[in-house]
């Protein structure tokens, strides 16, 4: 395993610890941090399934709190998930974000 991949796995563990320790009243920050962890999982660790699970949780938090910052982070996740834009992960993320699928034809949108 390369050093950057080991560092990414360690960062994933740290994100999980941070999220587990966050007070319940910091829901907006939780949504932002979940999205950042999702982006790291997708781009660095190549784990689109885990990234999508985290993005789903973050989207629910962002919607419940009305956090514009969390929604912006989620929109940025689409770029990090680009390698999976044409498969199930990309379509599921687009549906989660209410975006037209990257594989949709212009007349489908």
Outline the structure in words:
The protein is mainly alpha-helical. Helix content is 71%, strand content 0%. The protein is built from 5 helices and no strands. Helix 3 runs parallel beside helix 5 (88-97).
* Overall pLDDT level: 82
β-strand number: 0
The number of helical segments is: 5
Largest sheet: number of strands, sense, barrel closure: none
Strand content: under 5%
**Radius of gyration from the CA trace?**
14 Å
- What are the secondary-structure elements, in order, as H or E? HHHHH
Q: Report how far the terminal alpha carbons are from each other.
A: 42 Å
How would the global form be characterised? flat
Give the fraction of residues assigned to helices.
over 70%
Q: In summary, what is this structure?
A:
With 109 residues, the protein is mainly α.
List the helices and strands and how they pair.
Blueprint: H1 3-21, H2 27-43, H3 48-65, H4 68-80, H5 88-97
Highlighted features:
109 residues, mainly alpha, 71% helix, 0% strand, flat, disordered C terminus
